[in-house]
């Protein structure tokens, strides 16, 4: 299947969107809420928006034409995320399903003088055996220009278009709903005094839903960010940055006839350091305030953070630990925004030139904010939940171009409202061809 992810440079945390064909259990399910990740670009990892000058080597591509073809067969026992109660009340629904994901990616990268221009096109199709109403096409197009100006300034200009199937929260969301996502951004950084850099970023994005009921989720985001970073050595720095994101829901109004709006402001400090050749620690910790313009003036404020640890063991194994806390707008019809704390652990191992494996675990604790006057007709509410995800996969290379992968996963959500609780198990087999 096509999933939307953020590719972040491990040191600078500069992030770009990319679509890949994969099926990574709870991590995949969570990342399908692409807009939440985009919102995090300035809230949680604002340093990602502030320092393109330090991530040029990762965000540009100069390898000319490249391609990727893949096909993945999966079987899951609860693709609809039904609770036990919903299964009993709806015996006609088939929670168990098998599906095929076919995917094609084409890309082109070229250096033009001191600039790097890249273009990526990704198209895919999912076919379900039982729940054919969820069959969908996915399409992504993105372009990036990394530029340099003089000896001290550089930046990035990027655009992105994605069409995807909406995420499923409960039985009410089992509908065919294509989501169209458009983003445009510009970021720049200039060194102003030896080791000191001044940075800034601006981004616009739009989300449109095809299904009529879900159009209440249509929204526009405007993001601003600025900061300072001071280098204290190779791959070591400290910094201070601030950001603001304004979210406007085009079709959602309160009883006072105001269109729903959400504002988030944050200020954070950041630090990065490597401890020997094998350990890298990066993080930003700050204060975040999120509020809406409803009659109740829903608001949350407090600590936000993003901490990443990467450890390389015996050159063959890499362990990643990521901790975060943030507040993001929701993609479902019931709540306004949620505060989420996540823990992610991943182990990537290379056993031979042809054989590798990955094991990942994810935990998320979510608190939802509703307000009394937003969409009360859309069923029951879920004030909080905990989601767990575990996945393992093995990859085997059949040569320079072909790779086989097989894996299994388990996801579970425990909610304060049992209607939102579910568990899901799955197996998958994938073959990919790339140059």
Could you explain the architecture of this structure?
This protein is mainly beta and 435 residues long. It has one domain (2-434): Porin, CATH 2.40.160. The protein contains five helices and 20 strands. It has helices at 25-31, 34-43, 46-50, 56-59, 84-89; strands at 2-8, 15-21, 64-76, 97-112, 115-128, 136-149, 153-165, 178-193, 196-209, 219-233, 236-253, 259-275, 279-292, 299-313, 317-329, 337-350, 355-369, 384-397, 402-415, 422-434. The protein has an 18-stranded antiparallel β-barrel. A two-stranded antiparallel sheet has the order 1-2. It is globular and about 65 Å long. The two termini are 20 Å apart. Mean pLDDT is 80; it is low at 1-60 and 372-377.
